[in-house]
Amino acid sequence: RIFTWAEMERATKCFRSDLKLGTGSFGTVYKGKLDDGTTVAIKKANNGNAPRIQQFLNEVTILSKVNHRNLVKMLGCCIEREVPLLVYEFVPRGTLYEHLHRRGDTLSWKNRLRIATETAEALTYLHFAASPPIYHRDVKSSNILLDEKLTAKVADFGISKLVPIDSTHISTTLHGTPGYIDPQYQQSYQLTDKSDVYSFGVVILEVITGQMPVDFSRCASDKNLSTFAMSVIQRGAISELIDKRLDARTPEMLECVAKVANLAALCLQFDGSSRPTMKFVLEELK
């Protein structure tokens, strides 16, 4: 649906600062209420930032091609002014990142595993069911939104790529978030589906450990969660990794965590060809 600028101003009370949900390099997201009473999230690009506006248009292209319960839904856009606006379903429970790293509440292991599985469902859909396939390119816990039932909704397709049919990779400039970027992509500038697999492996580690993907309070060699966790997994000390806030450590839970940690280790192989597909990862998580 195409929205008018006047509708967007009414929805956000002229982009009132107390309705801001978040701000980033892309612009600002506001909570809004449409004329019919629907609560939405409205993303507003930064003024005069041509690359960011291009990312907005890219997001419109991608989201108009997909439909999956674990992908955030775009309801429409407003392109009346130089600054485009995107309108999404409102996802009320924040991001996985906030639940793992900022909030006082602790997600149970059962909820963490389900959120990881639902995220894998979304990525498997993008890689194997979307036509053409889509590489997300910025898989991270802050791009996994949670609804009122803590159902995962993967968001932010500003730097995602549509993949030509029968292509195995795309040569492209480096984009992504430190701590999550596929090191092979970092070297070769060749983006593949396995780049998303690597990033998802880091998300799995966050889910297990409750630790940040990059943490400068860890010793120099362990700043990156992937490096730190891989060494622990390789020496078979997975129990040391488990988030201390997770209690009820039954033998069944510990066995499940060990399996998921070993799956993360597969996703984090340096050589992309040694990593599993998202389809395999999803089957293992189920």
TrEMBL record:
Keyword Nuclease in record: no
Pfam families: PK_Tyr_Ser-Thr
Annotated Protein kinase domain residues: 15-286
Annotated positions binding ATP: K44
Phylogenetic classification of the source organism: Eukaryota, Viridiplantae, Streptophyta, Embryophyta, Tracheophyta
Family, as annotated: Belongs to the protein kinase superfamily.
Protein name: Protein kinase domain-containing protein
One MF annotation (Gene Ontology) recorded for this entry: ATP binding
PROSITE patterns: PROTEIN_KINASE_ATP, PROTEIN_KINASE_DOM, PROTEIN_KINASE_ST
Keyword entries, A-Z: ATP-binding, Kinase, Nucleotide-binding, Serine/threonine-protein kinase, Transferase
InterPro entries linked to this entry: Kinase-like_dom_sf, Prot_kinase_dom, Protein_kinase_ATP_BS, Ser-Thr/Tyr_kinase_cat_dom, Ser/Thr_kinase_AS
SUPFAM superfamilies, sorted: Protein kinase-like (PK-like) (SSF56112)
